[in-house]
Records
---
Amino acid sequence: MTTPTTVPTGDRERIELVTTRLHTAVLSDVIDRLGFRDQAMDARIRPAWPGAVIAGRAHTLLTADIFEVRPDPYRKEIEAVDSLKPGDVLVGATGPSTRTCLWGELLSTAARARGARGAIIDGYVRDVRHIEAMGFPVFATGMKPVDSAGRSEVIEYGTPVACGGVLVREGDLVVADIDGIVVVPRVIEVDAIRLALEKVDGEDQVRDAILGGATLAEAFARYGIL
């Protein structure tokens, strides 16, 4: 009898396990099996620099476009970044706006200082060369050099947002790599991680069988994994 896979109860240990053992494709597969078939963000949100990988808890932020420079334009943006906790991922929903640029080097620096693990922006970012140099993982739809003042403002944070076509709630597990971004709802998180770990082990067996001479059909018939 196979011993059930144990998922750590500690948040830090759980996120570390996801970071080191899992990837978005396998998580997407098991989330599908659990009945949540729309948890992968739009493919237009890509790593801002090669090799960026993120796993952590969503800390959500919502912006709206504006068309005038207002007093104290960064107040809520600063509040949102300063409220990040260790293990958080800033998930910024902009509409998605093509007018503004939400994220840059100084926000990345502040987020890292708070213990955040990355930022996912359904919109534009800037200062990418500096962000890459500091190794802070950021995903975005593109780059634009403009400032947000007079173009957009944060209207709320810590509330559900639609980012990349997925409803993201505060505290959801968010995983991002070269294949894309997956949001794991808390209600299925333990089962999703357990099933994903089991699938990774099964994929290793399928790979070994194929390398050992089995056809793909034979390996699939034996393990039921593709």
Note: The chain has two domains: 40-184, 191-223.
---
Amino acid sequence: MEVTLFPNSLRPGVGLRPKKEAQRPSLPQHARLCPVLEAGSSLGALVYPALAENEQFHIGYEGEGLYQFGYSVNSTGKQWDQIFFVNYQLSVGTIGMRKEDVQLMVPETPGFKDTARAIARMFISVDDLGTPEGAVTLRGAYNFQTAPGWDTVYSGVINNPARPVAPVLTTRVETDWYVHDSEFRYILTPGEIITVSHNLPVGQVFFVPREEITYRDGSEQEIAKRQETSKQFFDEKATNKKKTPYGMEYSPLYQQKSREQQKKDKKK
């Protein structure tokens, strides 16, 4: 299935391309020995922000409808310099923005405050702030158009157990016909901040068919066959063992069978 990529319309050509990635730095090294975990991690693609290598931003929620966006650059490769903050004050108890104040950390030039507001909107969806309370929406560097009958699911990075991890809402969009920007909505608690860098993904996408699924009960013959197949696999697994340099024992059988099946599928 082919997926068409479109760059962030507010900042085209900046940011890493989406990619599959089986590894999670926050997981212990022995997770490499779990092929089903790696296969789960590499579902779909990781999506990155539209940031250059020397750029960084953060978005925080301070409670009572107050959010702060901060943008910084590292122009010398030695230190990060804060360029500006944009403070968003939402109307408490109602929908809408009450104030959008820019605080410059560099000498002011004509029109720069408007530029700062525009830069913030390249990376976050300002109109979605506070829906629901504490919500901040991060934009990706690339958007997707799927083949007919396929949807895109937008979620946080899966199998990423490093704490603290802010909850993220999962959405499913019919991207074969609907023009949708890649957006990932995190829910922050008061005092919580998300810092976003060039090489850190802001979310993960999965491509799924829209075809309806029906369920049926397996027959007695199918149940017996399944049990027999399972016993054969685990008997073979018990005799197919390896050890890591640290003495941990594991079986590579599932990975071997998976690769054999992939080769068969490619020949079809």
Note: The mean pLDDT is 90.
---
Amino acid sequence: MMACADFGQPIINLDEIAGGFDADHLERGDLHPTIDTPKALEAAEYLLALMEFSPPDILSMSWYERVRPYAEGKVAMAYGYTLLAPYFELDPQSPAFANTGYLPHPHGPGGTPIAPVGGYVFGVPANLPEERIDEAVEALVAFTSPEAQKLFIQNGSRTAPRYSVGSDPEVRRLSPIFESVDQMSWRDELQFWPRPPIPEISDIIQICGYELHDMLRGIVSPKQALSRAQSRAEEVMRKHVT
């Protein structure tokens, strides 16, 4: 899905707008998967080409485990979240310590540089007793305040949801990651449309994971993997509609 976005292809038929694709209006009734497309095929072939330059055990690594060979100096580049940067930024023994730069994903001929946005959602449970709601809201406000965000960073975090915190001189001195992410934002490279928040997204992620993993293992061709993923994703979206 991320590679597709880098080649200019959303995972569902989003409308193209300035700076990317419109993921703000997902209540449409005509949404369908766009996995088996020419651009997606380019992305799949790119993933296959990456295998030549990947650690031998890359297909048994989770997303989070991929930071380990990078931190150990076994690979020169790696995809990763800013969430994982402390793994090597706080380890003076790591070859990557104070020796790392940050860039958005490389892109294909039909795409642009993209740094997919992820994160966490805080909320108040619907079944919380009414007398506890005000305290829960107060806790969320405190937890997401600039003061709390800065405190997290000073204690090892490398994410800054607030512009004000990311531009704080004390924060900037702790890591180059904050300026890098800030620049990506100003260049409109931070995008969340590669992972559109539709009810079926978790199923589609799982489907792509299974089918593309088989492709990378050499069990099926890129075209076969995309065709299978498209068919399975269409079935999932039809079930949710009905």
Note: Residues 130-184 form one domain.
